[in-house]
Here is the input.
Amino acid sequence: MESEVEAVSEAPKPLTVMAVTTSSMSFKVSVIQTTGQEPSTRSDDDHSFPHPPHRHGLALSGLLVALSACGGDGDTDNSAEGGNGASNGGAAESDYELPAEYADSGSVTVGLAVGNPPWAVLPEGAEQPEGFDIDVITALSERLGLEPKLEVAAFDTLLTGLQADRYDIVISSLTIREERIEVIDMLGYVQIGTGILVAAGNPEGVESIEDLCGLKVGVAKGSANQEPVDEAQADCDTPIEIVQTEGNDFVALQSGRVDAMVLDAAGAFETANSRGDAFEAVEGEVYGAAIAGIAFNKENTGLSDVYQQALQDMIEDGEYAEILDRWGVSDLAYEEAELNPIGG
Here is the structure.
């Protein structure tokens, strides 16, 4: 990601999370190890986030295994081809005007991070990630006649990897920021916000972000979710101790190494609902309402343009709504395929 950036205020929008079921897709997956750090930020406007109904969700222990593969030096390529096929299980002929290099190769390389339900997770024992982001990028790519080759990496290395041409596209619920769209293009595809996760029983009595004062709070390194904590810090008599982790470190929270976690709000509620024996989400507030974008290099306008067209078509014919509903995030819809939007 880019270097140090300033926060940009964004207007809040109501968010709601509902039930989740899984889907099937066909793609290739590589797990890579990269280095580097790209801090991101998000504004902290507050709004209501009703708690969704209880449901069984994705297995989380596999996420921790996946996250342990995301840091370090060098590149490892562990490819896996999948039998979870959406539509016809492979790239189809396209009516869109693709740039020649992609029309010739028939594939696109996609960078993403896992460990953030419902956006992208690696279930225990699985070789392929799954989630809303996976379904969206696969459906879009298949419309374009492209096979998405997924490369899983540490969240805080994704945008530097994009700018270094490691990936053609990055999707990982990345907040669209003024500072980002100065150097990359971002296609808005869903709304996002920040929530708080605590251990079951809420032993520290956390009811809002202000209650994090004096506590140890885990946040994924490079995540936009740290900004609301930084702003709350200014009003603390006893400072918040921020513990940066590799991805969302649920073990740190469960073991007591941190007292709370801040993470994507939809992920906080998904985790609490699927692991209610271990975790619960703080109800009532979501911080930093924003728009997430699919990232492209600015010089790659031919690719971003056709993905924009495909997303608009997917919105209009209802497939986008089906994917939102499948992952329980229908109220997070961003229903116009727009490049570089700002605001929530």
